[in-house]
Write a structure and sequence with these properties.
single chain, mainly alpha, 4 domains, disordered N terminus, FANCC, FANCC protein
């Protein structure tokens, strides 16, 4: 076989041998083998096209003498042309072999053969929904389109739905008569057609099908393919079917969770509403109403948080996810709703109950007292002699981190309300420095109290300069512990947003502090959370909102 040394993976002999054995996939054995090889075949065809598009037709045929036999056989295999983008790739490959100016009878005959294959592919194409484009293309070739494809798929789906949903006759349900091997075979044969809209009812029925078997009866290739198509938005499935998919196939749930995290981290999001929209669209918060799914998603979040050293973006994602999960849980039918303690079974339940209270459920005048209650319980747990390992300490901190809105409110209450500051400062000190021993946490408190006292002296000043806050900036710069810097940066940012004179120096000071500490992303996450909370808690202040938007616009450019 002639093969370009630049593309050693184009194994035409292997795939031609497969295509000959498959034929038109009329036997059970050949159909199964086709389905199992479709993803690799599609990748191979894509590589072929990427190679052909840089060659002329004559050179391509000389370089790959087996290509005509291979493409010709694949075009008549219904499983191949029905799979994802394989049909389109086959068409592009054929177009690359088409001679625009045929010089001899052989090239003319080759062009005629290519036209007939293209017509065949188009006549059974799911592209027929785009009638104008298809009609123009077919008309150019001098052919007319067949009209049977859509009806064929619909009839097949209808027949299988009747089989799996059960035939009701004189009260007799026939569902139990469908064997597990039959269900498995159908799930495997669905692989080439998964992205067809007409197949969606069958996908839903298969995913929700319960045959009573002790092990999974749907093929893992089917479950993985459905999940991939759903994540790429090539298919739309009802929530119940997606939840069933993730309960049946845990690798798909893990992939969906990591896909969501990658999606959120890789795109620029300028508001918490955008973050919430992406998370809600994933269906993961709704699916997490099932405790098994919640625990797996939560474990993935925990591992990612450890791997990224607790980056602000990941923390914000976890906090928004938790809020959306609680909303979905609240909307569940009471008869089917699991108690919230089911989701946090290993934690101190009074603390869980306190954290689960949404701020909007309490009058704003009660926020400080509620936060003090949380802080007191947390302090008693952390300083308990039974908490002997960093792992135990991390579990407590991770629980608190889910409910970051209360931490943000604590930082605001320190500046906006008449409060006893020690409990709220301790709460923030633990959140930002959970690994500290008691003596270190005491030092953290001393540093935080010094900055807080300095800020409170300036809080009512209507005219401020950056120089007035230099002492606080100096504190941030000289502190060795990074976590203490996080805490003080949080206090300084809130001071600029909520103090009388802070607005006038906010732009300059935020620039100064982010340049000095390299915390643009951290401050940006904080401002996004604050903007969301002000809007949704009914605290909207036109001047503060305008400042937040300006700060976010400038920081987004830097991030």
């Amino acid at each position: 076989m002639a093969q370009d040394t630049m593309v050693p993976k184009l194994d035409f002999e292997y795939w031609l041998d497969k295509a000959i054995k498959w034929g038109q996939a009329t036997t059970l054995e050949s159909q199964k083998d086709v389905c199992l090889h479709l993803p690799q075949l599609q990748e191979f065809l894509h590589q072929v096209y990427e190679t052909l598009k840089h060659m002329d037709a004559i050179a391509a045929i000389q370089q790959f003498p087996l290509i005509g036999q291979l493409l010709g056989r694949l075009c008549w295999n219904p499983f191949v042309i029905g799979y994802d983008e394989s049909q389109k790739t086959l068409m592009w490959c054929l177009c690359c072999l088409y001679s625009s100016e045929p010089q001899n009878p052989v090239e003319l005959k080759a062009n005629s053969w290519i036209r007939s294959l293209l017509c065949h592919l188009l006549s059974s194409s799911k592209w027929e929904s785009n009638e104008a484009e298809t009609s123009t293309f077919i008309s150019t070739l001098g052919y007319t389109s067949a009209d049977y494809y859509c009806h064929l798929v619909k009839n097949m789906v209808f027949s299988l739905l009747a089989e799996f949903r059960g035939n009701q006759f004189n009260g007799l349900n026939m569902q139990g008569r469908v064997s597990g091997s039959r269900v498995n075979a159908v799930s495997l044969f669905c692989l080439p057609l998964i992205t067809l809209p007409d197949l969606t009812p069958l996908l839903e029925t298969l995913l929700l099908y319960q045959g009573g078997a002790s092990k999974e009866i749907l093929s893992s290739e089917f479950l993985q393919a459905v999940n991939d198509a759903f994540l790429k938005k090539k298919i739309s499935l009802p929530e119940s079917a997606v939840i069933s998919l993730w309960l049946r196939h845990l690798p798909s749930l893990e992939k969906a969770t990591l896909h969501l995290l990658d999606q959120l981290v890789s795109i620029q999001l300028n508001s918490l509403e955008e973050v919430a929209c992406v998370i809600k669209d994933s269906l993961l918060p709704q699916a997490a109403s099932h405790p098994a799914i919640f625990r797996i998603v939560n474990e993935i979040f925990k591992n990612v948080l450890l791997e990224t050293d607790g980056t602000p973006e990941i923390l914000t994602i976890i906090q928004v996810f938790t809020q959306l999960f609680l909303q979905a849980h609240q909307n569940e039918n009471k008869e089917h709703r699991f108690p919230l303690k089911t989701y946090f079974p290993c934690h101190h339940q009074p603390l869980v109950t306190a954290l689960l209270r949404r701020p909007l459920e309490l009058p704003t005048t009660h926020w400080s007292q509620h936060l003090k209650h949380i802080s007191d319980m947390l302090k008693a747990l952390v300083e308990d002699t039974n908490i002997s390992s960093l792992a135990d300490l991390f579990e407590i901190w991770f629980l608190v981190a889910h409910f970051g809105e209360w931490l943000d409110i604590a930082a605001e209450q320190l500046l906006k309300a008449a409060v006893e500051p020690d409990a709220l400062l301790w709460l923030l000190a633990f959140y930002y420095c959970p690994q500290n021993e008691k003596q270190q946490r005491t030092q953290t408190m001393v540093e935080a109290q010094a900055v807080y006292s300095h800020l409170m002296m300036l809080f009512s000043c209507t005219v401020l300069s950056v120089k007035d806050l230099e002492a606080a900036v100096h504190t941030v710069m000289k502190i060795d512990q990074c976590c203490n810097q996080h805490l003080i940066t949080h206090l300084l940012t809130n001071f600029l947003l909520f103090s009388s004179g802070g607005h006038t120096i906010a732009q300059e000071f935020i620039y100064h502090i982010t340049e000095a500490t390299g915390r643009s992303k951290e401050v940006c996450s904080l401002l996004i959370r604050t903007a969301y909370r002000i809007k949704h808690n009914g605290e909207e202040n036109e001047k503060t909102v305008k400042l937040l938007n300006e700060l976010l616009q400038n920081l987004t450019l830097k991030v």
